[in-house]
Amino acid sequence: MLTWEQYVAGLTSALQRVDGKAVEALVQAIVKVHADDKFIYVCGNGGSAATASHIINDLVKAPAEASGCRPLRAVGLADCVSLMTALANDVEYKQMFSKQLEALGREGDLLIAISGSGNSPNIVEAINVAKAKGMVVVGLTGFAGGKMKDLCDIHINVPNTSFGQIEDAHLVIEHVMVEMLKEAFGGKCGAEIA
Fold first, then answer.
1. What would the pLDDT profile of 110-139 be if each residue is shown by its tens digit?
2. Distance CA 144, CA 8 (A)
3. Is the overall model pTM greater than 0.90, yes or no?
4. β-bridge pairing 73-76 and 110-115
5. What angle is formed at CA 23 by the lines to CA 7 and CA 113, rounded to 5 degrees?
6. Nearest residue to 30 (alpha-carbon basis) of 62, 69, 74
7. Which of 39, 69, 85, 137 falls 20 to 30 Å from 185 in CA-CA distance?
8. Burial category of 144 from C-beta neighbours within 10 Å (exposed 0-12, middle 13-18, buried 19 and up)
9. Is the sign of the CA dihedral 63, 68, 73, 77 positive or negative?
10. In angstroms, how far apart are the furthest CA atoms of the chain?
11. How many beta carbons lie within 10 A of that of residue 4, not counting itself?
12. CA within 13 Å, CB half, 121
């Protein structure tokens, strides 16, 4: 039977193997998007859709609140349920994010694409559309990165095979990213180092 200690040890091990330089590159990409007054789009399925919404919440609110800077312009592609389900039902599930990017995405915008496996067809399709539009693509994955590892400009991989631990780690990465952004925009980081 799995114990608390074993689960935490697996998560800790995965976090220690995440490439911190890739997280820093993500922060710098967001700083550039902000400076250029471009948009950030985030997408994921299931638990990763919840993470995508969490990212939108924190990106729009936290850095601006901490530093007084202009809020980031960020949109969750899984947050308009009526549009997402209409596209999935009437067009194709694989295109429910890519069709939104066809309408909204512009050169210089940023896509944060989240997939534990790195192989979700609708996420890969969104990446392909984003790349064709000249957007910067950041991928958050697990396992060995799947198809996404070779498609993204910045790839942040959680080298783990437990979807729960991968999703946990993606949230940790999100929170670290936000704390780094607060400082990058001249505010104070709220994280305390034990």
1. 999 999 999 999 999 999 999 999 999 999
2. 20
3. yes
4. unpaired
5. 80
6. 74
7. 137
8. exposed
9. positive
10. 51
11. 7
12. 6
**Residue 110 near residue 128, CB atoms below 8 Å:** no
State the SS3 of 47-64: HHHHHHHHHHHHHHHHHH
* Edge-first strand listing for the sheet containing 136-141: 73-76, 39-43, 110-115, 136-141, 154-157
Strand 73-76 versus strand 136-141 pairing type: unpaired
State the DSSP string of the chain.
---HHHHHHHHHHHHHTS-HHHHHHHHHHHHHHHHTT-EEEEE-STHHHHHHHHHHHHHHHHHHHHH-PPPPEEEETTS-HHHHHHHHHHT-GGGTTHHHHHHH--TT-EEEEEESSS--HHHHHHHHHHHHTT-EEEEEE-TT-GGGGGT-SEEEE---S-HHHHHHHHHHHHHHHHHHHHHHTT--------
CA 100 from chain centre, in angstroms, equals 16
Structure tokens at 193: 């180092």
Rounded to whole angstroms, the Cα distance separating 26 from 112 reads: 9
Cα–Cα distance measured from residue 187 to residue 191, given in angstroms and rounded to the nearest whole number: 12
pLDDT tens per residue, range 58-101: 999 999 999 999 999 999 999 999 999 999 999 999 999 999 99
